[in-house]
Design brief:
about 300 residues; mainly alpha; MetI-like fold; two-stranded antiparallel ribbon; 14 helices; globular
Length: about 300
């Protein structure tokens, strides 16, 4: 009886839309006429679409750019803030966590202002240092291809890396994730008993060996949790793309899979096709999550 109100809300706003969307993914529907059943046509169209796979590639670039650096910098700052005797620790913790509670839209507008091609702060500083301004938000060339251009080498498309514009968006994603990772790692560090480090010191272990053989293994639950959460969130990135590159970036190089889905649904009104893409994405995220639990959780030390 007590959970009925919550159950009704979840049913109406989660379960029913989910089931309805799944049913409509097998239909052709533009919202102005009656849906027409087309079977697996929408799924086949997506899997045969070059734009779909390009969007998936750009999404993978974003995930591979945001995920490792969010974990590395989060752990680095957590280690810096571990010492409770350091003056101003609480202030630093608040500063590092502020990006987490900052609206993604506001953060994207701020980064858009910093990296604006003509009047941005980044180019202003570069010019002050004697350099040439950079077209941060309008360069479609992959970052790795830009490096290899100096050697007149053309890389395959999949190896060219994210565009310079996507790199700016990746930087925004890292900035917003680091504070959350820092807090989670900090909680994990404070739960590690000093007894382990004292015993290692008696055996003559260096600080590096303490970190590698004690800190990292005992932080594996925190790392595993962050890995799951950041992977799911990164595959669903949309807000920064919509604000910073509303047209999908130069040559659509920032058109990640959710942005591609959004344009199919609300720009071209291919609702059935868009829903099919949504469920393909859900299946991919589910498969990656299952893989992480099946193969990576074995390395997690819960003791």
């Amino acid at each position: 009886m007590f959970i009925t109100p919550t159950g009704l809300i979840i049913t109406v706003f989660v379960f029913f839309p989910l089931v309805y969307a799944f049913i409509m993914s097998f239909h052709s529907w533009n919202m102005s006429s009656a849906p027409m059943y087309v079977g697996l046509k929408n799924y086949i169209m997506a899997l045969e679409s070059v734009s779909f796979w390009n969007s998936m590639l750009y999404t993978v670039y974003y995930v591979l750019g945001v995920l490792p650096f969010s974990l590395i910098f989060g752990l680095f700052f957590a280690l810096l803030l571990k010492d409770n005797d350091m003056r101003g620790t609480s202030i630093y913790r608040m500063i590092y966590f502020m990006p987490v509670v900052t609206s993604p839209i506001a953060a994207a507008m701020g980064f858009n202002w910093i990296f604006e091609n003509q009047m941005g702060i980044a180019n202003h500083l570069i010019e002050k240092l004697g350099g040439q301004p950079v077209s941060w938000l309008s360069t479609p060339t992959g970052i790795l291809q830009m490096l290899f251009n100096h050697f007149n080498v053309v890389l395959p498309k999949i190896l060219q890396g994210p565009s310079l514009t996507m790199c700016v968006i990746i930087l925004l994603g890292i900035w917003q994730n680091v504070g959350y990772a820092t807090v989670v790692y900090l909680a994990g560090l404070q739960s590690i008993s000093d007894t382990y480090y004292e015993a290692a010191s008696l055996d003559g272990a260096t600080n590096w060996k303490k970190f590698w053989h004690i800190t990292l293994p005992l932080l594996s639950p925190s790392t595993f949790f962050l890995l799951i959460m950041f992977t799911i969130a990164s595959f669903q990135v949309f807000g920064p793309i919509q604000i910073m590159t509303p047209a999908g970036g130069p040559l659509n190089t920032t058109s990640v899979i959710v942005f591609y889905l959004y344009r199919q649904a609300f720009s071209y009104y291919n609702m059935g096709y868009a829903m099919a893409i949504a469920f393909l994405l859900m299946g991919l995220i589910l498969a990656i999550t299952v893989f992480q639990f099946r193969f990576l959780e074995r390395r997690v030390n819960y003791e």
